[in-house]
Amino acid sequence: MKRVVITGVGAVSPLGIGTDRLFQGLVEDRSAVVNQRQEWQQEVSDLTSWVGAPLTEPLDPNRIPRKHRRFMGRVAAMAYVASLESLDKARVPEEMLASGRAGISFASTMGSVGALDRFFRTCFEEREIGRLPAGIFFRCMSHTCAANLAHALGITGRVLSPNAACASSLQAIMCGAEAIKNGKQDVMLCGGADELHVTVVSSFDMVRAASSHFNDRPQDTPRPFDEERDGIVCGEGAGALVLESEQSALAREAEILAEITGWSTNTGGTHMAQPHTESMTDCLRAALHAADLSPDAIDYVNAHATGTLQGDQAEAEALEAVFGEKGVPVSSFKGHLGHTLGASGALELIACLLMQKLRYLIPTRNLKTPGAGCGGLDHVTTLRPAEFDRFVKSSFAFGGIGSVLVLQRYRHG
Fold it and tell me: Exposed, middle or buried: residue 52 (CB in 10 Å: 0-12, 13-18, 19+)?
């Protein structure tokens, strides 16, 4: 079994394009959440939630060759830009990408929502398809990110696209890690992406999971673990990571950012929408077992913590059950970024790697007073200097799906 390391990262987030913009915004405690009523009310008039975290920096279409761009919706374009940064930082040569020893595991909640909306509006409102571009199907398909990346980057190895809502990108990273650990691939480009669209917000609004009490002061929401939390705020972006076998990375003299030592994914099997503390607890413990670590070996947890009433409490109770009361520092980045859905696990993991490198912990934005059931944790509420070696990143999705990664600072040998 081979050791799995990370050698490159790339990001497109509501805080800007590139990992530097992502991390700078987090360190400066900036919120990317804005009021979207003007953009959305022409499409859906009865939303209760009018807040979102869009990418405000324009994607430069000239970065994507036209022969590839015409098959990409917004979600695949963001994935491509983030992937280029990660491959550049990892210094992966083109011949390695085309060797068959490099693959892709890249996910999203679904295909391009904007392209899907255009397709169905044209079909059912205008009742004709002749006005649609021929490539629109390739923007809509659920594996649009993975397939477009393989085509545009010349990658000929395995191509995977696990689609599991908010757990998508962590599952994608796990699939990549397993391919490398088992010797099936030497390099895997992994991550996730999702785009912000009024129909996405509507789906959360329908099940009363979207934040609606802060429309007039959007930077005060979401509020992970806070007593005033009232739901998620949808965002958009893409996070990409280059995973590699230790042997491959050392042979290339690549900079190794961290090692992935354990992972787990499971489901509660009890309810499609309601969170399940016991299954979250089981997923955390299984990931630690896979890493051969006890809970007291973990120095930090980056929580999923989206700002929903039940989800945050269930996660807090699971963390307390595993790590003990006040057992490990915990924070969430949703207050800065909103919930970037299928991109969230990858983007937040990238931020954790940058925190580890620069030796401090970023606090949970908008957490003032922990809510009922959330007070038993060591919440990071101010920028905290910290030398941490091992950390946990978790994602928990609708359908009861949990995904947890355990990582550590890389040490040769």
Answer: buried
Q: Report residue 106's pLDDT band, with 50, 70 and 90 as the boundaries.
A: very high
Instruction: Specify the length of the chain in residues.
Output: 413
The whole-number average pLDDT for the span 6-29 is 97
Position 139, amino acid: R
In a domain, 233, yes or no: yes
Report the alpha-carbon distance of residue 306 to residue 395 in Å, rounded.
10
For residues 161 and 183, what is the distance between their CA atoms, to the nearest angstrom? 19
Which phi and psi angles does 241 have, rounded to 5°? -135, 140
DSSP, collapsed to helix, strand or coil, labels residue 380 as coil
Whether 277 is covered by a domain: the verdict is yes
Point out the domain boundary residue: 222, 252, 282. 252
Band of residue 63 on the pLDDT scale cut at 50, 70, 90: confident
CA distance 37 to 39: 5
Instruction: Name the residue with tokens 């965002």.
Output: 235
Q: For residue range 315-350, list pLDDT tens digits in order.
A: 999 999 999 998 999 999 999 999 999 999 999 999
Segments forming the whole domain that contains residue 287: 261-408
Residue 342 domain flag: yes
Separation between Cα atoms, residue 377 and residue 319, nearest integer Å: 8
β-bridge partners, 265? 403
Block residue for tokens 């003032």: 368
Residues 196 and 315 in one domain: no
- Burial label for 359, CB within 10 Å (0-12, 13-18, 19+), is exposed
Q: Specify whether the CB–CB gap between 282 and 276 falls below 8 A.
A: no
**Number of neighbouring beta carbons within 10 Å of residue 67:** 9
Q: What is the number of domains present in the chain?
A: 2
